[in-house]
Amino acid sequence: MAIAFIKTNYCYISSLILNQSINTSSTMAMCSSFCPQIPNHLRSRPISLSPTKPLFSVSVKAFSSQTSNATAKADEIPARVGFLGLGIMGSPMAQNLIKAGCDVTVWNRTKRKCDPLISLGAKYKSSPEEVAASCDVTFAMLADPESAVDVACGKQGAANGMSPGKGYVDISTVDGVTSKLISGHIKAAGALFLEAPVSGSKKPAEDGQLIFLTAGDKTLFEMSGPLLDIMGKSKFFLGDVGNGAAMKLVVNMIMGSMMASFSEGLLLSEKVGLDPSVLVEVVAQGAISAPMFSMKGPSMVQSIYPTAFPLKHQQKDLRLALGLAETVSQPTPIAAAANELYKVAKSHGLSDQDFSAVIEALKIKLQPSAKE
Ligand SMILES: NC(=O)C1=CN([C@@H]2O[C@H](COP(=O)(O)OP(=O)(O)OC[C@H]3O[C@@H](n4cnc5c(N)ncnc54)[C@H](OP(=O)(O)O)[C@@H]3O)[C@@H](O)[C@H]2O)C=CC1
Ligand SMILES: O=CCCC(=O)O
């Protein structure tokens, strides 16, 4: 017996389906007639459930991207979902899964970050291995390649708790080589692997509005789709492992260069006697407008950098993107220059500030050389 649960802006429909496999199209079609707010991409989304051994329980949740996801329903059958890594991004993502009614088990290196989620109903296990062993699908949202490998493949790592029928979804921003290494360990245990780095920062994570850039096992993409839909507004499947990582690095390479260029513009405008706040307004109305400039510009003008995306992670992404470019001999001089600026910012203690603090690196007076 399976329950399909469809949520939209205005209505909930629980549909009891007495077969082992869900005919999603017909369920969606039925729900669409009651709930015209269901977006097209959710109406037709394929959900293939194994007739013999579902990867996880068959609660299907769809929602309008305009809708808050923070609604729990006691009559849902929750999936057993693991979540490893509860930093700026992982905490709100796990929170949205819990609030949507999923059965979530968490782990974080620093245990106290688990406490707010435990208060919301999450279970706790003391190692990634135990989380993976007790869950059907486990998500990981870790700082960098080193921590992603350690948590997945190290002693008491998630791979040790994996077995056939389970899935591992790595959302961390890493390079393709790292992702393939992790995939190898997970698949050696007979489980499925999906890389799924996200575009979108702290606020989209809180609002369930992330963009998933996935690659790997298509079956796991389809099975974890309802969970990705709780945490995000869209998802791309890009083929083989490495393609999701590459797409994410290209996006963040552009972003890092944009922020560095914007920083130069703000400071130049001020030096020539213009009001940088007016520059922010002018940029917002023209062809180079970007939500990032409008969101971060006003606080940058005041030299305030509340952390949404830590500067150290932006520099890590530029470093990894430059490595990717190197593998195909693609010149990336703008990104290389931007990377140097983020390195200077790091060396001045700005690693944990928001990446918009890179502007501070342009305010630092260079020391005159001994000869001058
Ligand atoms: N912030 C953002 O806007 C976005 C970030 N990303 C990417 O998502 C990932 C996470 O980012 P974010 O949440 O901001 O980062 P945070 O720095 O806030 O969190 C990093 C997480 O990784 C854990 N961690 C770090 N090192 C280790 C280790 N050696 N072993 C085990 N766990 C470790 C931390 O544990 P502990 O709490 O113990 O330190 C924490 O849970 C990064 O890859 C980042 O590039 C992607 C999109 C947006
Ligand atoms: O990796 C971080 C991305 C931040 C964003 O997309 O706003």
UniProtKB/TrEMBL annotation:
Pfam families to which the protein is assigned, alphabetical: NAD_binding_11, NAD_binding_2
Keyword Oxidoreductase: yes
PROSITE patterns (UniProt xref): 3_HYDROXYISOBUT_DH
GO cellular component: chloroplast
Presence of the UniProt keyword NAD in the record: yes
GO MF annotations in UniProt: glyoxylate reductase (NADPH) activity; NAD binding; NADP binding
Keywords noted in UniProt: NAD, NADP, Oxidoreductase, Stress response
Role summary: Catalyzes the NADPH-dependent reduction of glyoxylate to glycolate as well as succinic semialdehyde (SSA) to gamma-hydroxybutyrate in vitro. May function in redox homeostasis and play a role in oxidative stress tolerance by detoxifying glyoxylate and SSA generated in glycolate metabolism and GABA metabolism, respectively.
Entry's family note: Belongs to the HIBADH-related family. NP60 subfamily.
This protein's name: Uncharacterized protein
UniProt source species: Tetracentron sinense (Spur-leaf)
